């Protein structure tokens, strides 16, 4: 029996389509949830998939959970590339769980700020956040310019700061300590400085959403908070703006890295290159209200006023995650003993 030419062509097309699908590679990306993963898909995953033909599957968790998963599956990770805050990236690097990134195979590496790279290039910062001052533009006609403005008696009971259990809590303590002449070995000046503000603070928040509620109800004028969260809240109608203190805000560096044992290391490196590309960095910065690590990115005036960039980035205080992890347990005990009582 002779087959019709059209049937032969259709059969061949099906075979070729199946073959291409069988050859298509998949990588698993460890990411954070919420708007973060939505914006990662728009700015990074979609361009990557379009260029490579590969598929990206996302696994959502926080930094601690991603690090724990990589540690538990050492050498046989269930993720090929992962986002994690720098403190956890350092831990994984110290435990020899990450692949050093070959900059010669990253076409955008020369455009990345120097401070983005981890020791031995085991990770690279993918974006820049901050702990800084967020204020209500309707109630404060003049933006604050210093951490000291939070202590002005006229704002007594109108300021909120974070508990030391959260990033903004301990970062603000370090910023004050440095401003008061303390060192990482001597946190006492910072504790002395923060004590009255902690007592007058509306609350010592532990969840970022608590700050949104306080601004919505008009209970506070200022907060030690994140500009990306404030930017999203402003987009939704709250009259919020970021003020970067002259003493320097504290930098936050979410990173991206490749766990050792990934079966798709080459493709994972390509994904990181996609993340570092100026065009994609700009896309993510604008959607997520977060700073870029690519020096070629030019942000809009509105966005540049909210995120670390230019002079505010130059003044930024970046802390060594290794040092912080060693000291935080003792600082937490002292906070509970000296600040909360």
SSE topology string: HEHEHEHEEEHHEHEHEEEHHHHH
Number of strands: 11
- Going by CATH, the architecture of the largest domain would be 3-Layer(aba) Sandwich
**In total, how many domains does the architecture comprise?**
2
Give the helix tally. Answer: 13
Report the β-strand fraction as a percent range: 5-15%
Question: Going by CATH, what is the homologous superfamily of the largest domain?
Answer: Periplasmic binding protein-like II
Give the terminus-to-terminus CA distance. Answer: 92 Å
Low-pLDDT sequence parts: 14-22
Question: What's the CATH class of the largest domain, please?
Answer: Alpha Beta
- Class computed from helices, strands and strand pairing: alpha/beta
Structure summarized in a few sentences:
The protein has helices at residues 5-23, 35-52, 63-72, 86-94, 167-179, 188-200, 208-216, 227-235, 265-276, 278-288, 301-306, 310-314, 321-339, and strands spanning 26-31, 55-60, 81-85, 124-125, 129-136, 159-162, 204-205, 222-225, 240-243, 250-252, 254-257.
List its salient traits:
D-Maltodextrin-Binding Protein, domain 2; 13 helices; 341 residues; six-stranded mixed sheet; alpha/beta; globular
């Amino acid at each position: 029996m002779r087959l019709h030419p059209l049937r032969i062509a259709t059969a061949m097309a099906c075979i070729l389509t199946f073959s291409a699908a069988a050859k298509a590679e998949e990588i698993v990306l460890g990411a954070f949830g919420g708007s973060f993963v939505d914006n990662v898909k728009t700015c990074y995953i979609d361009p990557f998939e379009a260029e490579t033909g590969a598929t990206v599957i996302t696994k959502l968790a926080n930094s601690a959970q991603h690090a724990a998963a990589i540690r538990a599956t050492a050498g046989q990770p269930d993720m090929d590339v992962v986002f994690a805050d720098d403190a956890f990236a350092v831990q994984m690097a110290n435990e020899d769980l990450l692949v050093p990134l070959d900059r010669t195979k990253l076409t955008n590496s020369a455009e990345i700020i120097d401070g983005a790279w981890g020791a031995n290039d085991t990770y690279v910062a993918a974006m820049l956040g901050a702990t800084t001052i967020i204020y209500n533009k309707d109630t404060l006609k003049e933006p604050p310019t210093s951490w000291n403005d939070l202590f002005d008696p006229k704002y007594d009971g109108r300021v909120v700061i974070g508990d030391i259990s959260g990033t903004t809590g301990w970062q603000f303590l370090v910023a004050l300590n440095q401003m008061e002449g303390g060192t990482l070995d001597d946190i006492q000046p910072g504790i002395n400085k923060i004590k009255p503000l902690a007592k007058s603070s509306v609350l010592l928040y532990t969840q970022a959403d608590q700050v949104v509620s306080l601004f919505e109800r008009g209970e506070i004028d200022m907060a030690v908070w994140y500009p990306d969260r404030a930017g999203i809240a402003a987009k939704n109608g709250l009259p919020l703006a970021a003020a970067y203190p002259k003493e320097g805000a504290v930098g936050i560096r979410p990173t991206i890295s490749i766990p050792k044992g990934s079966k798709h290391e080459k493709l994972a490196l390509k994904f990181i290159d996609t993340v570092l590309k100026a065009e994609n960095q700009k896309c993510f910065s604008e959607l997520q209200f977060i700073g870029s690590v690519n020096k070629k990115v030019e942000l809009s005036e509105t966005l540049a006023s909210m995120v670390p960039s230019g002079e505010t980035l130059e003044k930024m205080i970046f802390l060594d995650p290794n040092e912080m992890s060693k000291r935080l347990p003792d600082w937490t005990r002292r906070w509970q003993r000296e600040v909360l009582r």
